Amino acid sequence: MSETSERPEVERRRQKQRRQIQARERQRHPLQKFESPSKGFSGVVHVVGLWNFYVGFKYLADNPNFITTSFGWHLQYLTILGLSISTLCFSVGLLADMTGSYALFTAKNYLSLVAAPIEILIALLYWGFRAVDPALVVPPDLPLPPLSIDCAFHLFPALLLALDALLLSPPWPTTPTHPRAPLITLGLTTGFAVAYWIWLEVCYARNGWYPYPILELLTVGQRVGLFAGAAAGMGAVGMGLRVWYGWINGVERHISSKLE
């Protein structure tokens, strides 16, 4: 058989393989609770989330204070960094819902590996410290925000990101789950915590103060301990989400054969 006659057959096989790959990508993971990406429930969750994030950022714009004009702006706060990452995550998720793009859906799920643990940790730390003493998390020169705004910053993002991770996502951004998924999750969250600590120290060098009053009360060693604990906590939340996912949706076993 000549080389010329082989080419159409080779091309047909390639096209068949591409169609099989595309069909596999468009098949919802068997453990994923609800259809996503979709313009239904998934789209509604992402629209509601983006509206909540907009409310938070609008409050910052409408209520400027000394943080607004300082080095680092409000991005000195873990809350606002988390809100920014969550906004990016849900924006990509909504684009996936509107276009049906599984490349965007996968990107959203990777962003969620960082965004969801951050938001849940923020909620746990903020409401925990606030229950002890609000002055630990809110500078004395700033008033406490209204409860609805406080929840938009410190509660609703955690609930929305957890909802997305547990009900609108596969157990891992790619199938099958990466064999080192727990280590990857721990590495991402720990890396973020270390990067945030460095960022805070850069802001402190420029501003002369920390955004969180509790940091002013701690020695260098105690701050190291606090951030190490936060990194461990963020990693624990990330791994906890995987455990909760298994409780709600089941554990991935021999799933790959169902996707072929």
TrEMBL record:
* GO cellular component entries: endomembrane system; membrane
Spell out the Basic and acidic residues composition-biased ranges: 1-12
Q: Which domain of life is it from?
A: Eukaryota
Q: Which InterPro entries match?
A: ADTRP_AIG1 (IPR006838)
Q: What is its main location?
A: membrane
**UniProt membrane topology term:** Multi-pass membrane protein
Where is the protein found, in the record's own terms?
Endomembrane system
UniProt KW keywords: Membrane, Transmembrane, Transmembrane helix
Which sequence ranges are marked TM in the entry?
Answer: 77-98, 110-127, 147-169, 181-200, 220-245
Basic residues bias: where?
Answer: 13-30
Report whether Glycosyltransferase shows up as a keyword of the record.
no
Region Disordered: start-end pairs: 1-30
Name recorded for this polypeptide = FAR-17a/AIG1-like protein
